[in-house]
Amino acid sequence: MLRFPVNSIRNTIFIRLVLTYLVVILPIIILGVYLYNWSYKNASQEISRATLTQLNYYLEDLDRELEWLEIQQFDLLQDNDLNKLAITWEMMDSIERTSGMNYLMHRLTSIKNSSPYIKDVVIHLRTLRKTVSAAKDVTAFDEASFGHLQGFLTKKEGRLLAWNDTLHLSAAKNSGKSGKEPLYIVQIELDPEKLKESLRQLNMYPASGSFLAVEYAGFTLASDRQANGLMQQYLHAAARSADATQLLDLEGGTYHFNKAYSDQLGVSVVTFLPEKTVSRPLSKFEIWAWLFAIMSFVAIIIYSYSTYRFVHKPLLLLVQSFRRMEGGTLDIPIEHEQKDEFGFLYHRFNHMLKKLQALIDQDFKQKLMMQKAELKQLQSQINPHFLYNSFFILNSLARTGDTERIELFTNMLGEYFRFITRNGEDHVPLSEEVKHSRMYTDIQTLRFSRRIKVRFDELPVPMEKIRVPRLIIQPIIENAYEHSLEKMDGEGLLRVTFELEEAEARIIVENNGTDIGDDQILALSKRLGSTSESYEMTGMMNIHRRIALIYGDESGLLIDRSELGGLKVVIRMKLEGGDGIA
């Protein structure tokens, strides 16, 4: 079990930070949050209860008022003099007609004056072809209004009719014959200004507002301009909600909405109140709020200082030391006098530096020396077979007098030998390695252009700057020519392709030779991990070991059967996690 080298529990950073947080921050935060939430919740609930009670009283009063109007409307429908006027108008003389109209105007005026909510009382007399209004006297028969009211009475979706931006009550006197239009229709138009005035009485606070909605009729009426603006937002945001109390964030801010609904009327009345008005009773706690803010600020300073001193500063020192180590500086240990967790980490870090220096001296430098020695060995293994063939090609070109191709061939041959014999850096960009390999295939094409075809893909741009050991592709291509393609009777094919994934680059060299069996391929794969093999595999084993040394054990050569029928060699390079030159 891991033990930290501390003298007592009070020296641990964790305990100090926890105690600092519990003693200074937590009680203040809990107390402040509790007091605020408790006060806010009580104020909000009290305002909502009072508002909902007021809204229900308002709907009850409105229902009683409409019942009174409906009674007056019903009495008017049953008025004998009105029925007589509607039926026997054609048989009356002028005196009777005048007397009947005067009586009818008197009735309508009496009904209009009986309620402040009435704007006008109208009777549409179909048989007389006249419309009688308490506000407009006797006019020509309003055919459009009669037809609209008749359609509403046929559907009868509710008690109220929304028409011309106001509400109406209507009733009809049937003629007594099936399919016949009614004799007359009584229409009571409610005064929208009086309704707005009654809604404004619901606004208990200066910033509050209210509105009325008859949902089945699609009618809304707001108490003022502010309420009209919020009304549409509320209806859109809470159209499907049945909650009596809601808190909504709208364009104008956050508002508390209280809603009451009357089943008898099919009418909803809603009031709203800004959240800041609800929280206004909390102004009594202003002194406590300031004290809470000051204490919180002091607590943040104390906690920030303790965190910086006990956590951030030691961690920063550790990070900087790791960065120096990554840069190759291994002789600067961390000095830390306190006996806490960081003291233990620093001690282990210093121990790691010493051990890392020893490992570099004993292992890493030896590997680098072995890598350079293997590269020099590979460079010295210039294939005599390739050299003889090159001179043979040069001799053939000289015999034919093809000076242009002689010049091209000698340039290619010079570039080829310059690359494999130079003693510069051991690692080159992949683009240079590919250029050298392509040069080798161009030289071979001069010799086998009729028998062996080469498909050499373009190197993807993201792979061009990958740093690789020199001479990892050309020896594999040379091996394909020497041991497979040159021995074929038919047409040979060499294909070189490139693949790049997020953390791995692959170079694939394959041919269509058929002189190698599956058992031989399996044997070759197993021999790659061996250190003592025959001359023919020395080059491939060398390449495999150098790639694995640089990019990690998961990198190296993979040997398999190609889709072309011959041997496929895949050069895999893990771009992350290896000793990594990329």
Automatic annotation (TrEMBL):
InterPro entries assigned to the protein according to its UniProt record, in alphabetical order: Bact_2-comp_sensor_kinase (IPR050640), HAMP_dom (IPR003660), HATPase_C_sf (IPR036890), Sig_transdc_His_kin_internal (IPR010559)
GO molecular function, one term: phosphorelay sensor kinase activity
Gene3D superfamilies for this protein: 6.10.340.10, Histidine kinase-like ATPase, C-terminal domain (3.30.565.10)
Annotated compartments: Cell membrane
Chief localisation class: membrane
Phylogenetic lineage: Bacteria, Bacillati, Bacillota, Bacilli, Bacillales
Residue ranges constituting the HAMP domain according to the UniProt record: 309-361
Keyword Transcription in record: no
Name recorded for this polypeptide: Two-component system sensor histidine kinase YesM
Pfam families: HAMP (PF00672), His_kinase (PF06580)
Segments passing through the bilayer: 12-36, 287-305
EC number: 2.7.13.3
